[in-house]
Amino acid sequence: MDTTQNYCASLTAYQRYKSHEVKIGSIGIGGNNPIRLQSMTTTNTMDTEATVAQSIRMIEAGCELVRITAPSKREAENLQNIKDELVKRGYNTPLVADIHFTPAAAEVAARIVEKVRVNPGNYADRKKFEELEYTEESYQAQLERIAKRFTPLVNICKEEGTAMRIGTNHGSLSDRILSRYGDTPMGMVESALEFLRICKHLNYDQVVISMKASNPQVMVQAYRLLVNKMQKEGMTYPLHLGVTEAGEGEDGRIKSAVGIGALLEDGIGDTVRVSLTEEPEFEIPVAKQLVDRYLNRLPHDKIEEISKNPIEPFEYHRRNTQSVENIGAKNVPVVLADFCLKKKITPANLFALGYNYSVPLDKWTISDMACDYIFTGDTTIDFEIPGTLGIVYNHKTWLHNKGERRFPFLDAKTYLSDVECSTKLNIVYVCLSDVTEALLSKLKQDVTAVLMIDTYNKHGMAEQRRLFIKLMNAKCKTPVIIGRAYGDLTQEQLQLQASTDIGVLLLDGLGDGVFIAAENCGGDKIVTQTAFGILQATRTRISKTEYISCPSCGRTLFDLQETTAKIRTKTSHLKGLKIGIMGCIVNGPGEMADADYGYVGTGEGKITLYKEQDVVQRNIPAEDAVNALIDLIKEHGDWIEPALLN
Known about the structure:
alpha/beta
């Protein structure tokens, strides 16, 4: 396989990426250590009692590292009081100081806590959103300036035995990096490597790296590229995983699982933080569920190794497929809902799938999250269905129930036999072992076939990816619906597992549809919302407003959870709009990198509004800011009155 694309130990056999161990107080990260769980306090760092109390709640929820913001020397110094009080109460969990703009604060904190986190985008630079031009000589001079500023912290960490995280964020790349590499995963990687090379020169290896972004696709590509570049430079630093500003509720969980899960599936990641706009102790159980799936991943059924990988891991390219009905080619991925266990289906059943029938008006209302097809197995539908919906029957049932927008579902053996098929669309169920030369040959001649793939392998994502690679190397352009089956899970478990299993394939441009068969995992509406949520998180099909919302910390200048809920209530009908809601200027215009509008705390009770990365209104009183945001959206022509959508 082409080693220039290497980013993990194996694409087919689950194994952890081998990093070296970094000691953080009493625990180790990387090496042979388990994947560690961490979170961050949301209290004011100067409020020792509140920070200690919240830290204890986090620790008792399973948090193994507690991160606390230290924006100035004053807060950094108070870390000693927090640490002393925790120890006094019997808690020795390592503390991490979160530093952004103030090297002096980092240097104070490094003598107190077990680890400091610095952001290379603003530790030695000030972001002004300026486009700058550099010669090789002037660029080198900037690197020397950074080394001069960063070296004192490294020396203190070496002296004190303090670990460090170099945490690159997509939205806070320096103007210098942006000018040379652009707002790209490569820019994120180079931003970290500049600091890593200084650490390496100073013989300091107690460093953990992160590549966070609110867009899971950017985040995954950046981590993969980082591993690839580190391998070339002989580096083995442990990796901290997270999707920054993931948001709240099901959206935050799905987006986090898509990004973090995509990397964990390939054995990448030594420590995890799930960033939710909720209390930090609620993040830990979510992170634990993501991580615990890999405790029993081995042994798994062997998957054929890959000699030629046609997937570009560092850039998004959608697999080239033909169009069958509305599946494949340039169509957005479809959602196929599973109703095969229902013995009778009525119009009322379709409400959970996004279709609402009005008896007085005798018409269907169709939501933005209405599924495209329903698989009903052998259960027939005897009422007039909505015009945008297709029904999929088992082949034998279809033979006796043909009609408009009715299509057959066949296994590979039946498909290869001489049976009657639809002239428009045939859905063929296959696992990797079914993809034979005979099947490939027939598929390549068939303009009506769509594969619905499944797996029974414990390492199912890798097996399904291998199936895609087999199709691509055979130049087979048949569209594929990614299918996964689940049973007896909670709503949250279903969201996390399906997002991990299916999301990574969609991020790599694989898949023309999603089919989640979930038995006893919540209602039909939950399953449908999960499917659409995965497509939204992977940016492959947009069906609702996206909120890029930070998880709050001691720097936050307003109630993030309450404000996010208010903004969501008033704007959730604006399909496709991206709104960034940031607690402070640190997580401001940069962190909401690709938001259309921004709502940022810039002072106690003061909000600044952005259109993309440009300031529009400064220091609006918080009580007026939500309405001002709506006025701004209206001013730019992106507002739709909710009544017009009914």
